[in-house]
Amino acid sequence: MTMSAVRDGDSLSEPQWRDPRDRIRVRAEHRDSALVAYAEGELDYLVSEPFRDYVLSLAFPPWQIILDLERVSFCDSSGLGAMVGIWKAVRTRRGRLVVSRPSGLCRRILRRTGLDEHFTVSATLNHALTQFAKPPGQNGMSVRSR
């Protein structure tokens, strides 16, 4: 995997990643049995593949990932593709992906593309964490704002 990115915090603190142009930053932490990846910035064609690869590189069994998109200011089709790629990788490992606190822009894009019917979308981080306590197939409905 070739990533032209800068990795900060290789110590015991939370891992952090940003692309060289500082278009997007990702901070990750492990909470209970889940990986929580907090994204901030623009999720577009320039950063979508390294973003996907970075998030998946931190995942671990039981493959429960929360993407917190509260601070994502832009997302194009490649950004959506990165999310779908994460979702597919997690599903093949019998894990789960929850999209937490999507920004207004991300929420509209997920709704317009119908991806909110495939991803579990959570309005809060606490709600997202509770989704992993439920058996597969009962991980809740999308939380929509109209």
What does this protein structure show overall?
- This protein is an alpha/beta fold and 146 residues long.
- It has one domain (15-132): STAS domain (Transcription Regulator spoIIAA, 2-Layer Sandwich).
- The protein is 29% helix and 30% strand.
- It has 4 helices and 7 strands, in the order E-E-E-E-H-E-H-E-H-E-H.
- It has helices at 48-58, 77-92, 104-113, 125-130; strands at residues 6-8, 16-18, 24-31, 34-43, 64-75, 96-100, 120-122.
- Strands 1-2-3-4-5-6-7 form a 7-stranded mixed β-sheet, with helices on both faces.
- The protein starts with 5 loop residues before the first strand and ends in a 16-residue tail after the last helix.
- The relative contact order is 0.14.
- Residues 1-12 and 139-146 have low confidence and may be disordered.
List the helices and strands and how they pair.
Blueprint: E1 6-8, E2 16-18, E3 24-31, E4 34-43, H1 48-58, E5 64-75, H2 77-92, E6 96-100, H3 104-113, E7 120-122, H4 125-130
Parallel strand pairs: 4-5, 5-6, 6-7
Antiparallel strand pairs: 1-2, 2-3, 3-4
Helix pairs in contact: 1-2
Protein name: Anti-sigma factor antagonist
InterPro entries: Anti-sigma_ant, STAS_dom, STAS_dom_sf
Domain STAS: 24-132
Question: Tags for this entry?
Answer:
single chain; 146 residues; alpha/beta; Transcription Regulator spoIIAA; 7-stranded mixed beta sheet; 4 helices; 7 strands; 29% helix; globular; disordered N terminus; disordered C terminus
How far is it from the N-terminal to the C-terminal residue, by CA? 39 Å
CATH class: Alpha Beta
- Looking at the structure, the CATH topology is Transcription Regulator spoIIAA
List low-pLDDT spans: 1-12, 139-146
Q: Kindly name the structural category.
A: alpha/beta
CATH superfamily: STAS domain
Average pLDDT rating: 86
Count of alpha and pi helical runs: 4
Taken as a percent bin, the fraction of beta residues is: 25-35%
Alpha-carbon Rg, integer = 14 Å
**Share of residues in helices:** 25-40%
- In one word, what is the shape? globular
Largest beta sheet: strand ordering: 1-2-3-4-5-6-7
Q: Tally the beta strands.
A: 7
